[in-house]
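FORM 12-B: Structure-to-Sequence Request
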């Protein structure tokens, strides 16, 4: 197992090198950039230098006067030392801005992911064990509705019902108007209250696919020969389902669990924008639109690392839940 992990880590380093180079090349190829916008503003001032001179000066100061390959290795040498520069859009160090917004998105993503598993897996098992029953039809219909609903539409419905009509939650933002006057516990509950609708949105639009995935795999396992053998031995239905069948259903589910790691940190751009939540999804979108290469490079490279780590975790979890992988 250790040899496998070391081999995968070394391979991941090589993949990360290639991916980061592609990301850097794409960022350099964007049609609009922060440098061009800044040069346009500076050249518009009375008595200022021409636009072309400002472009040349800003490109030289930011290292954009080099070629893509030379510029990438310059960025890579700084990144290895942990120096990612200042964000052009937010005018603060990249790591500082990242740390300010990442944990809010992580909390939202983690809570919604845990709720998704708590809801989707039991309902998927219930639908599979009661195939073609009313419960199965109801769960399948609910899953299809969740899959089909666009995020912006469902979020708008939630705000209309629970914010406008009932007045239970605020429409926008992370804190209320009287946040500064509240106690520490009051501030905590104020933020929690503002995160209810965004988290519900994330759960509803994602739970359907996991539910159907669980149901499909559970049905496949329940039709296996060893399940019929277990029932023929006189084992209780509960033991057959939860001890024998469910363990094998977990094998494909670990792919979802491992692959969800980047999603916990990537943020939810549409949800964060609709609810005015200052998370990493919305902030990274602003940086990319502005052509903020330092922040965008750090964020996308960070997601690439998490993706590779998620794949490695999935492979390790396969060995945990499936003895055949350990033997191989």
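FORM 12-B RESPONSE
SEQUENCE OUT:
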């Amino acid at each position: 197992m250790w040899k496998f992990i070391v081999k995968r880590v070394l391979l991941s380093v090589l993949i990360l090198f290639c991916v980061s180079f592609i990301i850097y090349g794409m960022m350099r190829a964007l049609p609009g950039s922060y440098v061009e916008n800044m040069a346009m503003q500076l050249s518009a001032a009375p008595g200022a230098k021409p636009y072309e001179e400002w472009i040349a000066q800003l490109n030289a100061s930011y290292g954009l006067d080099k070629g893509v390959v030379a510029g990438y290795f310059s960025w890579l040498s700084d990144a290895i030392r942990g120096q990612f520069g200042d964000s052009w859009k937010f005018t603060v160090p990249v790591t500082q801005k990242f740390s300010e917004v990442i944990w809010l998105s992580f909390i939202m993503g983690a809570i919604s992911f845990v709720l998704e598993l708590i809801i989707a897996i039991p309902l998927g098992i219930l639908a599979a064990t009661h195939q073609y029953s009313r419960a199965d039809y109801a769960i399948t219909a609910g899953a299809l509705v969740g899959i089909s609903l666009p995020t912006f539409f469902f979020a708008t419905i939630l705000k209309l019902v629970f914010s406008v009509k009932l007045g239970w939650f605020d429409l926008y933002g992370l804190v209320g108007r009287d946040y500064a006057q509240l106690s520490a516990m009051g501030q905590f509950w104020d933020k929690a209250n503002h995160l209810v609708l965004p988290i519900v949105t994330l759960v509803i639009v994602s739970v359907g696919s996991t539910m159907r995935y669980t149901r499909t795999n559970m049905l496949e396992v329940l039709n296996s020969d060893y399940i019929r053998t277990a029932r023929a031995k006189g084992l209780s239905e509960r033991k057959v389902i939860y001890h024998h069948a469910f363990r094998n259903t977990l094998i494909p589910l670990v792919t979802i669990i491992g692959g969800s790691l980047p999603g916990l940190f990537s943020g939810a751009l549409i949800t964060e924008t609709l609810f005015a939540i200052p998370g990493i999804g919305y902030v990274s979108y602003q940086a990319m639109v502005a052509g903020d290469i330092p922040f965008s490079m750090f964020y996308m490279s960070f997601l690439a690392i998490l993706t590779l780590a998620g794949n490695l975790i999935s492979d390790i979890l396969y060995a945990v839940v499936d003895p055949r992988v350990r033997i191989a």
